[in-house]
Please model this.
Amino acid sequence: MIDLKNMPIGSIKGVGSKTKETLNKAGIFTCHDLLHFYPRTYEDRTPRYLLHDAPLDTKVALVMRVVSSPRVAYTPTGKRILRFSARQRENSPAVHIAFFNQTYLLNTFRVGSDWRFYGRLTKSQSGYYMFSPTFEPILSVSADTVPIYSPLTSLSSNKISKLIKTVLSSIDKNEIEDTLPDFVRQENALMPLGEALFEMHLPTDPRLLEKAKERLIFEELFDFSLRAERLRKREDTEIVPPMAKTDMTPFFNALGFVPTSAQKRAISEIEEDLTSSTHPHRAMRRLLQGDVGSGKTAVAAAAIFIALKNREKAFIMAPTEILAKQHFETFSSLFEKLGFEVLLLTGSTSAKERKLIKEKLVLNTPLLLVGTHALFEDDTEVRDLTLIITDEQHRFGVNQREKLLSRATVRNSLVMSATPIPRTLAMFLYAGLDISILDELPPGRQEISTLLIPPSKRERMYGFIEKEIEAGHQAYVVCPLVEESDDEILEREVSGEGKSELISATDMAESLRVRFAPHKVGLLHGKMKSPEKNEIMESFIRGETKILVSTTVIEVGVNVPNATVMAIENADRFGLAQLHQLRGRIGRGSDKSWCIFITSSKSHDALSRLDYMTKCSDGFKIAEYDLELRGPGDFFGSRQHGELQLPLASMSRDTTLLKKAMEAASVFLAKTEMK
Ligand code: ADP
Ligand code: MG
Model:
């Protein structure tokens, strides 16, 4: 048997000190690490189409002969491109091939030479185009299924592929020691490790490749589940004194509405966590999951009330300053009625106020401190801190959560997630937490109507927004933060597609100010400083600003019940969970609300995803659908899933695998413990 972990990459032929350094930086030290650096994707370069049935706007492989000599040309904005044409057959239409900034290829493509081109095929009035395709001389093409690796600074996908092939050619796949326990592999019919690794890097058959991925995903999930199980066991042992039982009547009276039965259930679960007289009594570790608008804040308030009544302190941490401020206002007005103090600490709290807050934290008076991550930036001692709540949890990393928890005297923790997560995934991501679910919305909410429109109907939509504003309402216009890549700009210019449909928030605000004058149009984006953001948000809350143009910074938590329209530009650029969050900003009052997705996308997948959103308003169902479509790794979007670092699992479309891995892990642990 060979132990890949004992084979340093320095021992591979062709790995010099520079390559070694690059690999080390990416966390690759041994052949084991290298073979677990999986392809990002695979390209199917089988030349299976004739030009006239080749799908447009998708990547295809075409074998073609160069029919005109390459020459350097300029785009309307003066960028240099290399262009020539090629034909599949003598009498088939020419395909214009263009390379951006790669004029050194001038002598590569001789008239009459044959190549396999692989790239996105597009068609415009002036004919077929392929931009910056990959190309191989037809006499020396590689396999039809080509693994593509994420490049590492100086190492291109090709170079990585070569290195991996060198390693694989020196070993026998049957000699690679398997890392999964035998019984687990057999019960789940999984491919042996060696075979799976070979198939990943040198794919021979699509079905085998699927089996190989399945095996490796399973292993990641299995390892993760093992860690999660162990975590759960360790947390089980944290024993704390329970809080005294509290009469909740004054709290419910002050709340101003009757809690839904889901809220009541969650509140009594929390009461049980905090005050039960079971011996020994464990600290609360609870995840509160609820769809947007399901009323998580009131549930958090109940937990805080219990702590305050016990003369203890509570922290609640929000991911943005806007949201922290909003919580501060909600909680101040509630708890002042009940005779407790509420303080706010964010990045823009002055040094003087900070000092005051610090002084109060060491006294034995009960209080609630609301804040952003500024809460854990200093390490003032806090007296009797026994409850820590984090709102919109998926935006904080595990480390931040733990750092905050470490400041508590008694570590009762409530985590509120704004994104509904399918239960299996929640158990996995929030291993070791008990879960309460708010699966009911407060009464009197009207269903939001969601529509999907092309850009050509934008002006009609503005007419509609105008009517809503005249009826006293307000609107959001959301734009994704996008920049076109050079290739995208070039494609548009050369193929004469005209102006880009991508719209930045700044441009949008400018044009809406003209379109909607004299109504006030505000602009909010993440690059603004906090005081400016607050001012803009406040003007919208007061109803002075009629239209708020924004990036996704308004995605979490913001509550302006008078806003009844949300238009989302380039809606196809957002994940479904994100669209659902955004849409949750409207329909918060008693008036009918509309959400309008604008997209110029023609992609079938993008349109059917958006179409699903127009029909479904249940966050949990949307989450299941999104999970099935994109797998757990992509679920939160790349920027958010710091908690789930599974290189392969993002390829998984199969949650049943997750369940199986979790079961296998707990059986495995039970077995090893019995020994
Ligand atoms: P989320 O779960 O998205 O954080 P919030 O806690 O912000 O939701 O609640 C959304 C809105 O619903 C708030 O204006 C809140 O006052 C109101 N609300 C919450 N619970 C109820 C209820 N049981 N009855 C009526 N309104 C409620
Ligand atoms: Mg909330």
